[in-house]
Amino acid sequence: MADASALVLLECLVAGTTHRPGLRDYEPQLKPGQMLALQREADSAYDDWAVQVHTTAPDAMWLGYLPEGRNETIARLLDAGFPLSARLTHKAWEDDWLHLEIEVLLPTK
Asked: Per UniProt, what is one Pfam family of this protein (predicted)?
């Protein structure tokens, strides 16, 4: 679990969840409050600031991306070596779209 004093840098939805194979079957394992990992995708052909969102379990699942247009600062911090993580705050199905709300966190200690 993240330090309660972590600084919340961004609150957003995870983009692209409808394009992640196996996510519908994996979804019951996702729990609000669980920690998530962020991984830079610097070679993305679609977004210069692409940041992937993954679970941290041994059977890690790629959930999607930070939304384009809101990811540049986070990408720059990751590129500079800052130990950012994320936390799932809410999940819900809306038709075929898995709505995942997260917080991007910077530890303060």
From this structure: HIRAN
Q: Which amino acid is at 32?
A: P
- Whether the full predicted model's pTM is greater than 0.90, yes or no, is yes
Distance CA(77)–CA(74), nearest Å, equals 5
Which amino acid belongs to residue 12? C
Find how far residue 3's CA is from the centre of its chain: 17
Interval 21-38: pLDDT, tens: 999 999 999 999 999 999
With H, G, I as helix, E, B as strand and everything else as coil, classify residue 31.
Answer: coil
Residue among 28, 88, 32 at smallest CA distance from 64: 88
Give the integer Cα–Cα distance in Å for 11 and 87: 10
Domains of the chain, CATH where assigned: 7-106 (3.30.70.2330)
Q: Strand order of the sheet with strand 97-106?
A: 7-13, 97-106, 85-94, 35-40, 51-55, 62-65
